[in-house]
Amino acid sequence: MTGALSRRGFLGALGQTALGGLVLTVLPREADAKDEKDKAAKSEAPRVDKPPPGFTPNVFIHVGSDGKIVIMCHRSEMGQGVRSTIPALLAAELGADMAHVTIEQAPGDPLFGDQNTDGSSSIRNAFVELRQIAAVARTMLVAAAARRWKVAPESCHTEKSKVLHAGDARALTFAELADDAGKLPVPKPESVKLLAWKDLHLAEQSLPVIDAPAIVNGTAVFAADVKVPGMLIAVIARPPVVGGKLVKFDATRALALPGVKQVLEIPAPTPPYVFQPWGGVAVLAENTWAAMRGAKALALEWDLGKNASYDSQTYKDELSKSVSSAGTVARKVGDAEGALGKAAKVVQAEYHLPHLAHATMEPPATLAHVTEKHCELWTASQDPQTAREVAAKTLGLQTFQVTVHVTLLGGGFGRKSKADFVAEAALLSKLAGVPVRVQWTREDDLRHDYFHSVSTQQLTAALDDKGAITAWRHRTAFPPIGSTFNVAATRPGAGDLQQGVTDLPLTVPNVLAETCEAPAHVRIGWMRSVYNVFHAFSVNSFIDELAAARGVDPLAQRLELLGPPRKVSLSELGIEKLANYGAKLADHPVDTARMRNVVERVTQAARWDSRKQEGRALGLAAHRSFLTYVAVVAQVSKRADGRIAVDEVWICTDAGTVVNHERARSQMEGAVIFGQSIALHSGMTMKAGVAEQHNFHQYKLTRIGEAPRKIHVDLVESEGLPGGIGEPGVPPVAPAIVNAVFALTGQRVRELPLEKHGLV
Amino acid sequence: MIKLRINGEERALEVDPEMPLLWALRDVAGLTGTKYGCGEALCGACTVHLDGEAVRACVTPMRRCEGRAVTTIEGLSKDGSHPLQKAWCEQGVPQCGFCQAGQIMTAACLLANVPKPSDEEIDRSLAGNLCRCGTYTRIRAAVKQAAGIEEGSR
């Protein structure tokens, strides 16, 4: 943590100037501020000490006069490899030797632009801006060298932390140039020239996993590993049902336990829940075990509230009823109802997926040290700026009075961008008057998650007398994430359907998509790939069902529905706008050529055409999400005991330009296992408003013995604009497995997990 | 007071004999490399060696550790040079990394007993170690690399 602390001083000495339009804020140096008052006014960060000697063109890069280079990683590391990727990208554009680079984790601060590590956005939203940040530094170092040599800057380039002059052996190290570079004006980021992509030499490299050495020797620091003097550990007994309230409690037994120091009540939240604490009673103790025992020893009486009637079985029936009649139109081409009325044959299927829990291996944890005018946080947050704001609001402080240190995250998957566990720590530290580290137990994590939506999808197609598909109707019902932020949100918004419904290219003349009522009774949150999980499942399953109904090969069926290579217009999709993951449609069109390519590549790799001769059962699925195209083939078989085994998986991904191929591959491998858990095992059900799965014996995840023997990852080489990496691998996995189960057994599974059907 | 040997060092820890080894290591002995994931021996994140045997520290009370030798990830090697640690880095196994100490400690016990394990033996040995990031295929590859078994699965 010392790095982050020293960095705070370094940051504080810089002024802040936001440049309009840029995702990332690029700063002038200290010298550029008009005066001390100006500097202070421009920076929210506390000013502690002077920056180290050297050259600091912006908050991301420092080139020391001693040759040491510091590169900040402003995004949270949760396994996706961002700390291995962003610094490598900056170093490549700078021409720095990674051996000279120290990576520091940025604190939560708008100085760094958007830090919300979410939506597979770290590279795709800032690819150019990140490179500009490094190119500014490179341009200044080159200018300093050119000035010293009296040559044109264009005749110089950087390599291995040196500026080199073309045509002769002249070279100066960054260390030798740092002081001179620091005296030059900082060019505007958009004015500097970026290197050609191939000259960064990232595509052909296998970048190291930066934190691996610390992970394998036990020194990597996660939130629960941080200690400060005088700290107590808090474990919280929360209402079993969201919105429940404490009626009374007796802490006598808890307080009698050795190590237990304080028992504090946390007020119940009022809807919408947003990132408020769940409420309950916190036991603060000298060690975690005492706090856990103390929480169990509390005598608690709850008023469970209106969500205590929530029952997953009943709710499934409600959703089924909801999709059985017309909803709110989200997409319309032609007259699907008319075509269905005239159909020679109607194919219809209903799919149901349960709530899912993020189940990060590291349960949420945050350490807060609150004093009268300051709050210091060490947290496993995906979104440190929101954590900062939530803590400030909880404590009645100004945002600048809160410092957020981001530790490594033991998994995130969207759970840790919700700051409820940060608010708890901040509140408890304030109430207790000492630093407090809140530790969620596994049971807390599973019972009190922001659950992935339960969902029901009804898909209906009309076939004419020749067997041609004349209509496609998709009705979707799921409690939306919006319900966590707005109590009036009781059904998906049209924008929610961009994730696999309204952005789906279909060569069907009549298409209709509708959203149906689905009120929330738990906190709903985004989980890795979000609504794409169930939309991709239902759409890919239904394509397989149509193939079977029409006697067509599933690959041919998919390519037929996808149609010829083209960029699909909004009018073809039958929508007025497409959120498109925040990207312009001109930059990232819905491109059927790219989808066809990944489908064709993955099926060739999996030897799709010879599967029957070889006696192999394969299933195919494909999906575009987070601007990335992914196709998956799964091969399944029956074990000796009759259970389904996933033997081998092929995954082909077109994510445009990929900065870190090695970590992109690992994300695809991980996505296959994540998707396999969804297909085979995982499901969160509620009875009387209470989560029924409390630990890993009930909320099951894929274990090593079930992992495919081989996961073949194929990344499409591309210099196109980058798409996401962390999430888009997930959606096609479960439907590929379920389609393979159909190929093997003839059994069509429309409700996950497979475990529910005795298949695994 | 429980006396035991941790990573080769004699220690006397002032703890309740019922306190699980996990919390004694993390909160009292200052060794945070061993992780809490479930508290019920269901995930393997807290795996350490007790007299050379892989145990789940979250369900191992300190009274069972009296006079015995505990090895944690911090003590597996002095400098990260255990073949498994090297293989883990070379294969790029860790994603978030939270489960990996437990995976490595389980695998180290396997290799100490079965120097050249079969695929089935690897899977069986690590069946109790969950990885939510899904690094299993690389874990297998790294165990094989550390065992000197030819086969890359990258």
> Strand-residue fraction of chain A?
15-25%
Kindly report the oligomeric state of this protein: heterodimer
Low-confidence segments of chain B, given as residue ranges, are none
Mean pLDDT over the residues of chain A? 93
Instruction: Enumerate how many helices of chain A there are, as a single number.
Output: 19
Q: Report the biggest beta sheet of chain A as strand number plus sense, adding barrel if it closes.
A: 7 strands, mixed
Largest interface: A-B, 69 and 62 residues
Number of beta-strand segments of chain B: 5
According to CATH, the homologous superfamily of the largest domain in chain B is: Beta-grasp domain
Structural category of chain B is: alpha+beta
Using the coordinates shown, work out and report the CATH topology of the largest domain in chain B. Answer: Ubiquitin-like (UB roll)
Shape of chain A: globular
Q: What number of structural domains do the residues of chain A give?
A: 3
- CATH domain class name of the largest domain in chain A: Alpha Beta
Q: In CATH, what is the homologous superfamily of the largest domain in chain A?
A: Aldehyde oxidase/xanthine dehydrogenase, molybdopterin binding domain
Percent of residues in helices of chain A comes to 25-40%
What's the CATH architecture name of the largest domain in chain B?
Roll
Contiguous uncertain segments of 5+ residues of chain A? 1-49
Radius of gyration of chain A: 27 Å
Shape of chain B: globular
Strand order of the largest sheet of chain B: 2-1-5-3-4
